[in-house]
Design goal:
The protein is of the alpha/beta class. It has 29 helices and eleven strands. The longest helix is centred in the middle third of the chain and has 29 residues.
Length: 624
């Protein structure tokens, strides 16, 4: 049976050290601790697990401290961990070492403050006394380069969890600034491929994406056989995307997908970029590929091979008018990871007018409440999306919130009398319910309520005058400014949710009487909430007067296509293609011809797409 020494360097780790050592004590034969200047109870905690505690003066060099630790190890293998890490409950290190390889890569699961974890691979276990040592000040790594061909490596099944990159921890340790400073020193002294890569990662973490691109590009040609190459290419593409170079980012990932077909993160990021470019067919294939692969690869964010790809597919299907398929995808996520799907599920359910009974059943079946924190999260999401079931859950769990929160619950429960009583009993209006008060003032036709929310809505006198004119059903002339328009269309959406259709109709008529161009924006709202026939009727009236309006013909085409009015859809889509020969228009026309079983025209459109948009994958000759 192989023996293992855990070697650690620590400084002021009293909050996490005991968890780390407790997870490892039964897995290792020896623990070596190097303290670099703790002023808290770190050393005392360590003494509860080992007497091999040594002190080392910090010289801004992690490799030097690591090398100090391994010189005290006496076991066959050395395990490297940080204090903010811990071994998984299912870890079995000795079983993993049965093959007696020279070194092992381990999956490290990084937990973030948003609950979305990412996984990377690191060399954490290696044979003792065969010449391994660390190099690099910050991202210290084992010196493999010159000896790699002589050594044999394996992969551990055991997982290490890492909590040091939550936002709070990053602030506590000031890692951002420390990393930049130390990496700059290291890169200047030794611009090795690994150091260049880590300098790029450091800039990536602090959102300096232009500099990240620079260092990733410098590292790439020197890193072709390195284990971190998939991560380098993925982060290079993400950085390019952040600085607006979408096509270049996609080109990087397309090449990476050929080199590393089983790296889920590469396909996921491809899908994200395709979506941003409105290349929906290719995006769909990328996310479906992620589901096929599952969570695998040297570096990945947890869930991209599962629930996160399904959520992206749900957004994609909703964007392309396939609400039913979007709903199915979100339901799948609700069954497996309801916390991440809940907000999107509630919003889509409201737009699709899913009954409250069904929504309640889905929540009850999939979101299990076992403690106060889980209840708080559910209530917060219901409150934030203004779902009418918010009132139900407050009552079910006997929660007595602040008055302004209860006002929202009563309002969306349509108990207007109780909402009025609560509102009039408040000393002041909380700014977070200002739009709800505006909604209530329109429902009650109560002008006095508006005076209390002008400041909260950031409205000037002239803007508030327009709001009041609309409330009094007075005629307005011209287009509203951006601020007022945004507020009014938010109001229209909430009227739909409350099914206050008479008020909704009156307000729409006022807007259209002032500017007929609002028909398109209102038609979009009808489209979003499934009032397809109303949308078609409203938008069709603009066919002759708005003959070059791209949004109009795209909307009409989508509505007719979704409702199987295929000849009408053909009329609108071909007109759209004439005035907007974008990829998005071509994809719509192709989908239409495919649905019509018009294979000749479908093939012609596909060939045009391949010629005009060479970055598109699905239309290439080998996919025909």
């Amino acid at each position: 049976m192989k023996t293992i020494t855990l070697c650690m360097i620590v400084k002021n780790e009293e909050d996490v050290l005991a968890r780390c050592l407790s997870s490892a004590k039964e897995q290792v034969d020896e623990i070596v601790i190097i303290d670099t200047g703790s002023t808290d109870s770190t050393v005392e905690i360590a003494r509860g697990f080992t007497d091999k505690i040594y002190f080392f003066e910090w010289i801004d060099d992690f490799a030097a401290a690591r090398n100090e630790s391994i010189k005290y190890a006496t076991s066959d293998y050395i395990l490297i961990m940080d204090a903010d890490e811990y071994l998984d409950d299912q870890a079995n290190l000795r079983a993993d070492l049965m093959d007696n390889y020279d070194y092992y890569y381990t999956s490290i699961k990084n937990e973030t403050s948003l609950g979305q974890n990412f996984i990377h691979t690191g060399l954490r276990i290696f044979k003792n006394k065969i010449g391994f040592e660390f190099e690099n000040r910050l991202h210290e790594n084992i010196n493999l380069t010159e000896r790699a061909s002589e050594l044999v490596y394996g992969r551990m099944k055991s997982i290490i969890h890492h909590t040091g990159y939550t936002d709070l921890k990053m602030v506590e340790k000031d890692k951002y600034n420390r990393n930049k400073r130390l990496m700059s020193i290291e890169v200047e002294a030794n611009p090795s491929p690994y150091n260049l890569f880590n300098m790029g990662k450091t800039y990536f973490l602090v959102s300096e994406y232009d500099k990240a691109v620079e260092f990733f590009k410098r590292a790439y040609p020197l890193s072709l056989n390195r284990v971190y190459l998939p991560e380098l290419l993925t982060k290079l593409a993400q950085s390019l995307l952040e600085i607006g170079h979408k096509d270049e980012a996609l080109s990087v990932l397309k090449g990476a997908a050929v080199l590393f077909p089983n790296e889920t993160a590469i396909h996921f990021n491809q899908g994200i970029i395709y979506c941003k470019l409105n290349y929906f067919k290719d995006a769909e294939q990328c996310f479906l590929k992620c589901l096929l692969l599952g969570d695998q690869g040297t570096t990945l964010e947890e869930g991209i091979g599962g629930y996160r790809s399904r959520l992206e597919l749900a957004d994609l299907y909703a964007e392309t008018g396939n609400s039913n398929q979007a709903y199915k995808e979100i339901l799948e996520v609700m069954r497996s990871n309801s916390l991440f799907a809940l907000s999107k599920y509630l919003k889509l359910a409201m737009k699709m007018d899913i009954s409250f009974d069904e929504v309640n059943l889905v929540i009850e079946s999939n979101y299990k409440i076992s403690n106060i924190s889980e209840l708080q999260i559910l209530l917060e999401i219901l409150y934030r999306v203004r779902h009418p079931l918010f009132h139900h859950y407050l009552r079910k769990y006997n929660v007595d919130p602040q008055k302004h929160v209860l006002f929202v619950a009563e309002l969306y429960n349509k108990d207007y009398e109780e909402a009025r009583n609560l509102l009039y009993s408040m000393d002041d209006i909380n700014s977070e319910v200002a739009k709800d008060v505006l909604l209530f003032s329109y429902i009650l036709k109560d002008m006095t309520l508006l005076n209390n929310i002008q400041v909260h809505l950031n409205l000037g006198k002239s803007e508030m005058k327009i709001i009041k004119q609309l409330l009094k059903n007075e005629k307005i002339v011209g287009h509203l400014n951006t601020n007022v328009e945004k507020i009014i269309f938010n109001l229209l959406e909430r009227l739909i949710v409350l099914k206050e259709f008479e008020i909704f109709q009156t307000l729409c008529e006022q807007l259209i009487s002032g500017d007929s161009g609002y028909r398109i924006k209102i038609g979009q709202l009808f489209n979003d909430y499934g009032f397809d026939e109303l949308a078609i009727d409203m938008l069709s009236s603009l066919y002759n007067t708005e003959s070059n309006n791209i949004t109009l013909f795209r909307l009409l085409g989508d509505l007719c296509f979704r409702n199987k009015y295929l000849e009408d859809a053909k009329l609108f889509y071909l007109k759209l293609l004439q005035i907007d020969p974008s990829y998005s228009a071509y994809e719509r026309v192709y989908n239409l011809y495919e649905t019509l079983n018009d294979t000749d025209n479908a093939l012609l459109i596909k060939q045009e797409i391949a010629t005009k948009f060479p970055i598109v994958e699905w239309a290439k000759d080998d996919n025909q």
